[in-house]
Amino acid sequence: MVQKAKILLVDDRPENLLALEAILSALDQTLVRASSGEEALKALLTDDFAVILLDVQMPGMDGFETAAHIKRRERTRDIPIIFLTAINHGPHHTFRGYAAGAVDYISKPFDPWVLRAKVSVFVELYMKNCQLREQAALLRLQLEGGGQAEAGAGREPAGLLAELSARLAAVEEQAEALSKQLDDDSADAAAVATAAHLERKLTGLRRALDALEPGTGGGSPALPSQS
User: Fold this and answer.
1) How far apart are CA 108 and CA 70, in angstroms?
2) What is the pTM assigned to this prediction?
3) Which of its termini does the chain have fewer beta carbons within 10 Å around, N or C?
């Protein structure tokens, strides 16, 4: 069973949160509400999120300040942030949003289909990264003697390698399809860069797995970084 991704919705107005939930419900992911920057930071202490939709104008801690706190934390600094704003003060205001670490800056009223499409890209990238981490964890078990444990339970290490290779192939195929979709849709540069980073990690994991195949002469290959 595939675990759903979590999307953090941050806005001080309940009607705006309700509208976002209506737009994003079609993605069939877990939507988490936060009515302030402080509440958003608390949610980020315990849960992992695929993307954050962050209102700029909020009483107390506004969106820019909230984003600054998010980017300072090692646990949350890589979570994509999409700023939503009802005002437009020109290029300087937009630049401030990107400088705060946002991957996108959308003015209200926005096209629901466009917002849903943008969020879905980051959800897909998040899910692929989760799958990649799972494959890397399985490979580490193999490298650290997990194969012998499987063999002791009546399962050959070669069978585990074949299963790992098949699972990785499925992730590689999905990542390739996503990259093609990004190219066709002229997606945001941040999404394209994230997809390219994912592909590099997949390549490194495939090389490490291939080195374990019988007859390759491989020892204990280094695993790709998960950063």
Assistant:
1) 23
2) 0.65
3) N
Asked whether 55 and 85 are in contact (CB, 8 A), the reply is yes
Question: How far lies 36's CA from each of 13, 59, 64, 65, 98, in Å?
Answer: 9, 8, 12, 11, 20
* Residue 41 near residue 71 (C-beta atoms within 8 A): no
Q: Which two tokens stand for residue 57?
A: 């104008």
For the record, the structure tokens of 10 come out as: 């941050």
103 and 126 in contact (C-beta within 8 Å)? no
Mean pLDDT of 41-48: 94
Structure tokens at 157: 């290490």
Which pairs with CB-CB distance under 8 Å and at least 24 residues apart come from 198-202? 198/125, 198/128, 198/129, 198/132, 199/175, 200/224, 201/132, 201/225, 201/226, 202/132, 202/168, 202/171, 202/172, 202/175
3-class DSSP assignment, residue 40: helix
8 A C-beta contact, residue 118 and residue 50:
no
